[in-house]
Design brief:
It is built from 22 helices and 13 strands. It is mainly α. Helix 12 links the parallel strand 10 and strand 11. The chain is globular and about 85 Å long. The two termini are about 50 Å apart. Mean pLDDT is about 90; it is low at about 1-30.
């Protein structure tokens, strides 16, 4: 089946289900005759529709603010009404917040859809082997959605049976029971899904996608020390078993160059284990993948620049903290920082290209152009296509309005943006969600796939499990597999920052892997959990994992307080989100508020 056909079926199904209202989000009972979904055609339709619920996370400012804003790695930009809640942990982070309501309603609708689908498939006329596969797909989706919910909300209603009746009495299950259900589903799924799918069908679950997700679920449960998640002594063994299955038996491989991961022309590459799909056809793209806009900064107000498709719509929601630029990476030898951001903007607006002119500061010091270099007063500083803006991590340690910095900037032919010049609107752009294939400048919906599982993370999951078990040789092996790709490669032409900013030898093309290679004794003599948190940050920066990683390792409060100066009101209870008030208001009978709501939100 082609991806286009899947989209058509999904849209058709959405018309059928328009009156199907979830017991956890709406009051009305479903009106649809479900007999259709006991037929082979109906089964295919409801399974394909199930995947659409996974799109919610990138269909707006959803999982971006839930999992990246307000962490040790990302703080607020100049725009966006959510920063007070999610970055500053202000009073807007409450049960009435629309983001929590949206997550809750989307995911429980998807779970309800999955439950009904499973029951209908069981009575369908499909062959038994196909029936097992389709049920496995729906249980994969259900486990995926429950895993999102339990990480964000903790105790939540656990429902595994479909219903066509209104039910307003849903008590929250324990976190440990939620994990038991997720693991049970995924263990069954892992054995019943195919290992590979045809190249004409993208975005379908496979046994390796289930194994990767299962390894992450076990890691999350087993990471708890003070928190109670039902963790077991065998959790890290299970993490290793499933992650190594993906590594050793899966058809995946690490790409040779970290930059190639983000190339829009390279979607569906060999490192992708599971990605949520979109299409360039607006009829079937719904809200599309909108994640690209939240990582952009302002550029059209700078000389020689105008807004275009290539550089994106500058929503300037999130910007990196100082930790990202100055303490997370070995910037000279680990290429991931420089390969994750756009540092240079090329001129695309002739009318705003600046001209050389004589300038003076209040002290009468003149910055004059150099005629020997062709810098004649009144002549343009650069041409279309030349460098117009150049960001660096230079730090001059004096204010942006200081005459010394003014002189440095005036002598550049382009707009030079050292770290001292960054502000809430101007900073390097994270390119991991870059979407230059949109049809117009104003278009929000992109067709870029949203990669949720890739082999680089699988190696780090295996490494963390090995280290938590005390096997630092194996942990170092897996970390170094990732770091070998993270280094500048043998024969690779390095970005100019390598020698201009980081002090490297100009035009050196040697590998830097030996400089960042980790030894087992380095891991055993350090706080291994913190080492892995930072290693995941370097590899997975901006890939919508961070808040959950910090909560998983019980570091959220400590690390956000330490590294995010804007998160002024964060409290230990913020490790869980508030249960949406809209859900609590529908409960009949409702328990006392401490029973229905998380601590800190009543």
């Amino acid at each position: 089946m082609t991806t286009k056909y899947i989209k058509i079926i999904t849209i058709i199904l959405s018309i059928y289900l328009i009156s199907c209202e979830s017991y956890l989000s709406e009051d009305g009972a479903p009106k649809l005759n479900y007999d259709y979904y006991a037929t082979p055609e109906g089964v295919e339709a409801i399974v394909n529709a199930g995947y659409s619920y996974l799109r919610w996370g990138c269909g707006g400012e959803n999982m971006t603010i839930l999992n990246e804003m307000g962490t040790d790695l990302f703080t607020e930009g100049s725009d966006g009404g959510n920063k007070a809640a999610f970055n500053q942990y202000g009073s807007q982070l409450n049960p009435d917040n629309e983001n929590f309501k949206g997550l809750w309603e989307n995911h429980y609708k998807g779970i309800s859809n999955s439950n009904i689908a499973i029951q209908q498939i069981e009575t369908s006329g499909l062959a038994e082997n196909l029936k097992r596969t389709k049920i496995a797909e729906m249980k994969f989706i259900r486990a995926y959605l429950y895993f999102d919910l339990v990480q964000q909300f903790g105790k939540i209603p656990l429902v595994t049976k479909g219903s066509t009746e209104v039910n307003t009495s849903f008590k929250r299950a324990s976190i440990s029971d939620i994990y038991i259900q997720i693991i049970s589903d995924l263990r069954e799924v892992e054995t019943n899904l195919p290992q590979e799918i045809g190249s004409s069908v993208k975005g379908k679950a496979t046994s390796f996608a289930a194994a990767h997700l299962l390894s992450k679920v076990y890691l999350t449960r087993g990471s708890a020390v003070a928190d109670t998640r039902g963790q077991k002594s065998t959790d890290m063994d299970s993490v290793l078993y499933y992650s190594e299955k993906v590594i050793n038996e899966g058809p995946y491989k690490l790409l040779d160059n970290y930059s190639d991961l983000w190339d829009i022309n390279n979607m569906g590459h060999e490192e992708v284990i599971f990605a949520i799909q979109f299409t360039s056809n607006p009829i079937f793209n719904e809200a599309g993948n909108r994640m690209h806009v939240y990582w952009t900064s302002l550029y059209e107000d700078l000389p020689g620049m105008k807004r275009d498709i290539y550089n994106g719509r500058p929503y300037r929601r999130l910007q990196p903290t100082e930790k990202v630029y100055f303490s997370l990476y070995d910037r000279k030898n680990d290429a991931r920082l420089y390969k994750s951001f756009r540092w240079v903007f090329h001129a695309n607006e002739e009318g705003s290209i600046p001209k050389w002119q004589e300038l003076s500061d209040n002290n009468g010091v003149y910055f004059t152009p150099d005629p020997v270099k062709g810098q004649i007063s009144g002549s343009p500083k650069f041409e279309l296509g030349d460098t117009a803006v150049y960001y660096t991590v230079d730090r001059y340690h004096f204010p942006a309005n200081d005459s010394r910095l003014k002189k440095i900037l005036a002598e550049r032919y382009y707009t030079y943006m050292p770290y001292d010049m960054y502000d809430l609107a101007h900073y390097p752009i994270l390119i991991k969600h870059w979407a230059p294939n949109r049809p117009s400048v104003a278009e929000l919906a992109s067709s870029r796939e949203w990669v949720r599982m890739r082999l680089g993370e699988t190696y780090l999951i295996a490494a963390e499990a090995a280290g938590r078990k005390g096997n630092f040789d194996l942990a170092a092996k897996y970390i170094n597999t990732v770091r070998k790709r993270a280094a500048w490669q043998e024969g690779e032409t390095k970005m100019s920052q390598y020698w201009v900013i980081e002090g490297g030898t100009p035009f050196d093309t040697s590998s830097t892997f030996d400089k960042i290679k980790v030894m087992p004794e380095d891991l055993s003599s350090s706080d291994f959990v913190e080492v892995m948190l930072d290693e995941r940050a370097r590899e997975l920066l901006g890939e919508v994992n961070r808040w959950e990683d910090l909560v998983r390792c019980e570091k959220l409060y400590e690390w956000v307080k330490k590294y995010n100066k804007e998160a002024k009101s964060i409290q230990p209870y913020h490790k869980l989100r508030p249960i949406p008030q809209s859900h609590i208001d529908r409960l009949i009978p409702a328990g006392n508020i401490k029973e229905e709501q998380n601590e800190g939100y009543y």
